[in-house]
User: Fold this.
Amino acid sequence: MNEKKLITLTGITTTGTPHLGNYVGAIRPAVQASRSDARGSSFFFLADLHALVKNRNPDEVAQSSLEVAAAWLAAGLDTKRAVFYRQSDIPEIPELTWILTTLTAKGLMNRSHAYKAATDANRDADVPDPDRGIAMGLFCYPILMAADILMFHADRVPVGKDQRQHVEMARDIAQRFNHHYGRLLTVPEADIDEHRAVLLGPDGRKMSKSYGNVVPLFCPAKKLRKYIMRVRTNSQAPGEPKDPDDSLLFDMYRSVASAEETAAMRERYAAGIGWAEMKNELFEYLDALLAPGREVYDRLIANPGDVEAELRRGAERAREISRPLMRDIREAVGLRTLRA
Ligand code: TRP
Assistant:
């Protein structure tokens, strides 16, 4: 039987240093999937062209690419099966972006949440021109993302809820292309896991750089411990039964531990585990989970050439798919070699 394997693809914007929240929400599930997926059926890439929309500091952009790539590799991504590459190494992506741009309705982009948020912010600040300070890169961001997805025939795109609209737009754009030029593009579907674990910060809000409550994923154990010690608790004494469903420490534990471990911890809450003890348990758990990756991560950061080699191998594999598709697309739209 020649059953078509489903292609999964997702991009990781290279802004900042990867943190524990990224690990729990995106890296760990993807790494686990990469170990069982058929070779060549999952694609993970560094969205560094997208990063330029958000960050104009060249050294930060470069450093973040290294750190994000090193984090994925250190977390155990199986790059023999999954194709792991850097968006900017695939020249077919910006080429496809332009072709898609010629077919994308401006009105569709006007409705993009990210663009609307930016113009709303201007209106709220009484800026006379709602487009002030907004680059075309932000406006057209969804078209570049559509090219990322459509370039590799992705069927499923695992993303957070905030990216649902972008995947919908990629569907729209693919359908428009196929309708006009013939069915060359696969219409993708967003794969949004509503139960995906969210790791909260010590103040109870989502772990996010914008709240400044982030722990770098592979930071030294000492820093990790400090962070856990800061997590908010209440004034209940050791020995008093505690409510796990109203405990940040428990939430954090649950986001990394197995179902059995979580159930056992629930019982320890009922039996009155003290906060200091619980903090220690959580720290030990996280530290054991992350220590092996931490070593690999530090070694990769010290040897960027190893990361580079990995990304280049990935790009070669990716281009085995993007080159022929781009050839077909050029032919389909009329960008053809002239022949006698
Ligand atoms: N925009 C996505 C984010 O900010 C990253 C991204 C870029 C992406 N291209 C993609 C995700 C293609 C999935 C598919 O999270």
Summary: The chain is about 55% helix and 5% strand.
